[in-house]
Write a structure and sequence with these properties.
The structure is a single chain. The chain has 427 residues and is α/β, with parallel strands linked by helices. The chain contains 19 helices and nine strands. It has a six-stranded mixed sheet. A three-stranded antiparallel sheet has the order 1-3-2. Helix 16 links the parallel strand 7 and strand 8. The termini are far apart.
Length: 427
């Protein structure tokens, strides 16, 4: 790129170039792929287009820095926070272009959008010690971590910085390959069996003078994953972290259907398919009307079994039920709908944060009603439990098997009670 002559720079443009460079660094810290070349291109674009008003200035920088649609949300929030000093751009426009339009009034403060937390963290000043400190590094499966205490710490007891580190660790999880063989065949260069139809077709094209063998093999397909997540008030400390995990699972694996329920059932599958996690969670918050409210697990499971089970529970689907099971009303309906859900899916995994207690016992009626119909009963309260869940998704299912000693003991108690209730006594 050619260097701009010093005499071509209007008064005040030198400070503007330095601010644009700092703005580019802030965008890179917020997660946008902005390099030194983009900062130089932005300076040159401003020199060519000029600074007429705030909207034109934002549009010029956005044309250089924004490469994808999902980057626009982060860029708009970063621009609002970085260039929020009143009168700076108007004074700069008057210095660079005396014949420009009259200065406009400062725009009213806007409501922070989905990327506000990430941009604010990128623009926050840090001390030299903090700037040079290495952040905790997590491997993709969280089996070896630079901070062992963070892996075992409860999500409800984490500070804001620890929650941010946990979200980065969840986003870096590597979802293992769990593709299964289907009955359908697909063409292969060299496969275990001969595709007779394609072989005859290719031989007829060649005049039947030679036989050109065509091969086929079993088609590999990932089974669907259906997520039913409780967003009631008792689950609010864990829902946000697991929504980030559900977003990463949707982006990297595919064929994931997510439903949120409190007092009603909401399908947020399309919202979680957005590439930017903050934008996806903000869209979920707009679509869900009963966030952090009451809970009606039985009624929500009935709505799912009635409206969605035939659509999404097929081809060996696995259901992840994320709830504490604290249901006070309709226990009989809850047991009936959980049994129906189990019969419709190939595998039902229940994730319960209450398993973080070593002496957990299924004393609540809702927990005992649901526990007799699940295949796997697992904790869901820290990073270690999330990593164990990723590994469990690839293992074959086993009826009457739990993922922990506490879960096996609790399920055995509930199963004996359920069996004694259904079967007549010998007396």
């Amino acid at each position: 790129m050619t260097e701009i002559p010093p005499d071509a720079i209007a008064p005040g443009a030198g400070a503007l170039a330095q601010n644009i460079v700092h703005f580019a660094r802030a965008l890179r810290a917020a997660g946008l792929p902005v390099g030194p070349g983009a900062a130089l291109d932005a300076v040159e674009a401003i020199q060519i287009a000029g600074v007429r008003n705030r909207d034109d200035f934002q549009a010029t920088l956005g044309a250089v820095f924004v490469k994808k649609r999902e980057h626009a949300v982060v860029f708009d929030e970063a621009f609002r926070l970085f260039w929020r000093r009143r009168g700076f751009l108007e004074q700069l426009a008057a210095a660079m272009a005396p014949a420009s339009e009259p200065p406009q009034k400062a725009a009213p403060a806007q409501k922070p959008n989905a990327a506000a937390a990430r941009v604010a963290d990128a623009l926050a000043p840090r001390s030299p010690r903090e700037a040079g400190a290495d952040e905790p590094a997590f491997d993709q499966r969280l089996t070896v971590s630079a901070n062992e205490a963070l892996r075992k710490k409860d999500f409800a007891q984490m500070s804001a910085e620890e929650i941010a580190a946990a979200l980065r660790a969840v986003a870096s999880l590597d979802v293992a390959e769990d593709a299964r063989q289907t009955r359908r065949l697909q063409p292969r260069a060299r496969g275990p069996r001969i595709d007779l139809r394609r072989t005859l077709r290719q031989s007829m094209r060649a005049g039947a003078g030679s036989i050109d063998l065509a091969w086929a093999g079993r088609r590999m397909r990932r089974p669907p994953i259906v997520i039913l997540c409780d967003i009631s008030g008792s689950m609010s400390d864990y829902t946000r972290v697991f929504l980030h995990f559900f977003h990463a699972l949707t982006e990297r694996r595919g064929r994931v259907h997510t439903f949120l329920f409190g007092t009603r059932l909401t399908n947020v599958t399309r919202a979680l398919r957005r590439r930017d996690p903050d934008e996806a969670l903000a869209q979920c918050a707009q679509e869900v009307a009963d966030w952090s409210g009451g809970t009606r697990i039985g009624a929500c499971l009935h709505a799912f079994n009635r409206d969605w089970s035939r659509r999404v529970l097929g081809q060996g689907a696995t259901v992840l039920l994320f709830s504490d099971g604290l249901e006070r009303e309709g226990v009989d309906e809850l047991a009936r709908e959980t049994e129906r859900l189990r019969m419709s899916a190939k595998r039902l995994i229940w994730l319960n944060p209450l398993l973080r207690y070593d002496r957990f016992e299924p004393r609540a009626q809702g927990i005992r009603a649901m526990l007799a119909h699940v295949d796997d009963f697992r904790p869901a309260h820290n990073l270690s439990s999330v990593a164990a869940l990723v590994e469990a998704l690839t293992r074959p299912s086993s009826r009457r098997r739990s993922g922990s000693t506490v879960g096996r003991r609790a399920e055995a108690v509930a199963y004996r009670e359920c069996k004694g209730r259904l079967l007549p006594s010998s007396a």
